[in-house]
Give the backbone structure.
Amino acid sequence: MEGPLIIGVDGSEPSLQALDWAVDEAVRRAGTLHVLHASRWERYESRQPSFGTGRGAMERYAEHIAAQAVERAHKRAPELEVTAEVVAQDPATALTEASHDAGVLVVGSRGHGTFVGLLLGGVSLPVAAHARCPVIVVRGHEKNVRSGFGQVALGVGDPERAAAATRFAFRAAELRRARLVALRAWRCPAHELPDHPTTDSEAHVVRAENELTAALHDPAERYTSVPVHAVQEEARARDVLVTASALSDLLVVGARRRGSGFGLQLGPVGHAVLHHSACPVAVVPHD
């Protein structure tokens, strides 16, 4: 049985946008939603003298944020089962630990305390890099966040490790009744030389097409209602995916694990799409 969809909230506008997105996703999945708010309020309250046994103002404020999130979720989807939890812990650590029991983890692009100039927040990036379950960072333009394009984009990386992300993308497309665009980027080193010779690209094209066919074959047989459009292109993967995100409701990429077992390691492509995608991004651990 799939675990709950967990949403990290901090009361900021990006986290409220992520909360609304998570509510809709939980309804689509016919699952449950768990609201998690984490902050280190005891770090600050321990510096002040205590004259009683009551809870501190920071703790009460943390509980208020979680309660407000639950109320907002119920207003958006009265039938959805919503639970909440408040923990005195670093937010990135708390969400990463919660990912062990989650089906999907959802976070906003940035939250309170993040410098405006930063493209991605100090919580969303480490959570996407280290969580044990798929992580969706809700970011992008309003129409993309509202699923206004009817398209899910999938970056097909290493074919031997693409299965988990591919399954996730097919299911996401099925739940949205959207089409799936599967993208495989390739580069010919000879083409990058200043005066490169005329090199036949046919071998690279055939290889990319074969890799796409192999990656999509099994899930396509299972998710027969999902229209699939496979695209191979000579370009940098990050450029292909960011471009595709402009007309997508969700961009799905895979992430590899470190051999040391310390969670996910995002490569340059993962970092690029998390910072520049025009739509929400799902980072899915390899099997």
